[in-house]
Structure of Ribulose-phosphate 3-epimerase:
Amino acid sequence: MSIQVAPSILAADFANLQSEVEMLNASEADFIHIDIMDGVFVPNISFGIPVTKAIQSHATKPLDVHLMIQNPDDYLGAFRDCGAEIISVHYEACPHLHRTLQGIHSLGAKRGVAINPHTSIDLLSEIITDIDLVCLMSVNPGFGGQKFIENTYEKVKRLKSLINQKGAKTLIEIDGGVNLQNAPKLMECGADILVAGSFVFNSENPVQTISALRSLA
């Protein structure tokens, strides 16, 4: 099975958002990854419900919404209404993670859990079978264009081992600093989905760049 690719709209040209979304529609991208930042959980503010709704109005690809926010439970329904097919919340922002995942599931969306670079895989052991997707942050969350954290490879291996040990069907998504140099090794370690922002949108031909990532075997 080839790797799946989720270009991050955070790196797009916001002045031409419709054309950027239409470009992704025409590409081999599997998802459109949308980073929601509140300036509290992470030191940056991106966009929220109205822009997500605008993206939905033009998108033909599934929306993969990554909530880098405090109190995500308060916004699950709103982002589902904006077309989110995957909703990822941060482990670090959810004191009652099982309840939050139940809430996402009840809305008919896929349940995602994102974890920061310092957060241990072991903390997901008791709940991995209730998670559809784990988003491993391979940079510190908040800003695009950061350098990939090398320890991510080992973390992917440990997560894949946990998934297999528990008999879960959880997918592994990598978010941050992904490129054609590290993507093959991430796949080899067990990654299923690659989020790529700056690498895609800053390239000369984003459609070809997405195709190159997706054709890796």
Observations:
- The two ends are 8 Å apart (CA to CA).
- The chain has eight helices and eight strands.
